[in-house]
Amino acid sequence: MTRPLYVIKAGSATLDRGTIHQEVADLVARGARVLLVAGGATGIERHYTAIGRPMPHLTLANGDSVRYCPPEEMLHLVDAYERVTLPAVERELKALGLGVFTAVAARGGLVTGRANRPLKAVSAEGRTLVVRDHRAGVPADVDAVRLAALLDAYDVVCLSPPVADQDGGAPLNVDADVLAATLACALGADHLRLVTGTAGLLADPADPGSTLPNVYPGEGARYAGGRMRQKVRAAEIALEGSADVAITGPHTMADPARWTRFWRTKEPAADLALLTRTVSVPSVSGDEAELASFLADWCRERGMNAEVDEAGNLVASRGTGPRTLLLLGHLDTVPHHWPVEWRDDELWGRGSVDAKGSLAAFLEVLAHAHIPEDGRLCVVGAVEEEISSSKGAYHVRDHYPADAVVIGEPSGSEKLTLGYFGLFKLRVTAAVPSGHSAGMDAVSAPDLLIRALGGIREAVLAQAPDALSAVIDISCGTGREEHRATGTLNFRVPPSADLAELRTAALGPRDGVTVEVLRATPGYAGGRSGPLVKVFTRAFAEAGIRPRFVVKKGTSDMNTLATTWQDVPMVAYGPGDSALDHTDEERIGGMEYRTARSLLADAVNRWFALPEGSRS
C-alpha cells in the first residue's frame, strides 16, 4: 500500500502556535509521509535581534518593502533558519515522538534555484536604484531521489529557504510557499496545504467569514493582496502537478469549511462538478481520508446524514425506514495519478472510470431520490477495494445489512453486471540450501519455484477449467543458509468453483515448497428474474436502451458481501468503459456519466415503489 505524501507549508506565526505540529503527527499516524516547509519571518527577526544586527530592507517602486539580501546577508539568513526556526520545529515534533530531519533547502543542493533579474528600488531620496546583488530567486530543480530517500527514512522532513544557486553563487532567498509548490510538483505529492493566518482566501479581506471555497486557475489573483498574492501564485504553480491544493487556516488544517480549494480543471456544466472534484482529489488505496472528508461535507451541505466510519468508509444516507437499498462504491484507486483535465466532453484522470464515476453518481442519486417512509437509501464509499485487504467492504458486510445492493463498478451505461468471478490467490515459496549453481545436479530456488507454480496451476485448473491464472509477482533472496524464491499465483475462478476443492488441489503434497492461501473469495452470480434486475430492466426500457447482462471475470466488493450475505439481491452498475480501468488512458464522457446517473435514479425510485415483500 502506497504511503501518501503531504507537502505542508507553515509560516513562522503558524509554527509558533503549535497546533500544526499535532496535525502533522496525526497525518503520520494515518500512514502519510510529510514534507514540511517552514517559513521564517519570526525566526529571522529573533535571530537578528539576538545578534544585534539591523535587518536591511529595500523599498520597491510600488511602495512595498522587502528584505534586502546581498551575499554577506545570506550567511545570517541561513543562520536564522538553522539556529532558530528549524531547531524549534524539530523540538516540537520530536516531543510528539516523531523522527525528524531538518535542513535549509540549499544544503547539499537538495533544491537549487535561479537568481531573479536585477531589482529596481527607490532610495530614501526618491531616486530609482538598480540593485544587482540582491540574492533572491525562484526554485528551479529538486533532488527528488535524495528527498524521497529522506522521506522514507524519517517521519517528517522539514525544509526551509534559502536554496542553492544553480550558477554557484551565494544561496538564494525564495518564497516558502513557492518552494512548497515546487516540491509538491517535483515529488508527485498527493496533497499540498498552504497554511495561513486567515480562513483561506477571502472574498472580502475585512470579513473573516468570506472564505472562497473553490477557485479555478486565474481566478484567485483578483482577491489576493499582500502576502496572499504569493500563496495564490504558489497554488497555481502546484496545479501543474497532480496534488490537490488548498489554502487553509487560520493557522490550521483542521477545518475544511475554512479552506480555499484550487481546482485545476473546470467542469463544462454545473451537473458535472461533483464528478470533476471527486476525480481531482487523489485517493490511492490507503489515502482515502481526504476524499471521504470532502464527500461527507458535500453530503451534509445538502442535508444528508454523512460520516466517516471507523474503517475510513464514507457512509451517507437518507430515510429511516426498515427497508434498505445499499449503493456500495469505493473511494480508492490504483496507484499513480496525474493532472485531471476535461478534454472536449471527456474527463481524464485516475479513478474517473474505476470507480469515482459510479460513486459520484450514487451520491447525486442519494441527494434527489424519492424515499418512502418505510425506506432508507444508503451510499457507502469503501476503502481499500483495490488491494487484497478489502477492509471497507468487510466492515460493510459486518455492520450495514441491506435488503438489496447495487455495487458501483464500471460496466458502461448500457450494461448490467449480474456477478463476478471469485479470487483464489496463493503465495508459493521454494527454498534450497545455499550453494554454487555449478554444483552437480544443482537445482536453484527459482527452478524449484517455477516447477511448483506449473504443477499448482495444472492442479487448480483441473478442478476449475474456466478459471484464469497468472503469476503476478516473483522475488528471490539469498541468505547464509538457504536460497529462497517466492511467487504469487492468482486465479480468477467462476462462481461455480468449489474453493475447498481448489485449496486441496493447491496445497499438496508439494515437496520442497510451501503454499499459503492469501485470498479465497468465492464468485457470485445472480439471475435475471429477481426484482432488483427487473427494476433496472424497466429503467433501461424507459431510456430506450437494450441492455447487455454480463458476469465479469474480475472481482469486486460484491464478492466480499457474498461470503456471508445469503439471499440478498446484488447487481453492479456504473458509467465508464472498464477496458480503461487501471490504464493511463482512463477517462469518462460527460454524456455517459449523465446517462448512467439518470438510469440509476430511475431504477432506485422503482425499487422503492415495489410493493412491500417484493423487493428481495
Number of strands: 31
Q: Helix/strand/pairing class, anyone? A: alpha/beta
Poorly predicted regions? none
Instruction: Report how far the terminal alpha carbons are from each other.
Output: 37 Å
Tally of individual domains: 3
Strand order of the largest sheet: 5-10-2-1-12-14-15-13
Question: What can you see in these coordinates?
Answer:
The chain has an eight-stranded mixed sheet with strand order 5-10-2-1-12-14-15-13, sandwiched between helices. The two termini are 37 Å apart. It is α/β, with parallel strands linked by helices. The chain is built from 16 helices and 31 strands. 47% of the residues are buried. It folds into three domains: 5-52 and 71-112 and 143-262, Acetylglutamate kinase-like (Carbamate kinase, 3-Layer(aba) Sandwich), CATH 3.40.1160.10; 270-414 and 554-609, 3-Layer(aba) Sandwich (Aminopeptidase), CATH 3.40.630.10; 422-521, Alpha-Beta Plaits (2-Layer Sandwich), CATH 3.30.70.
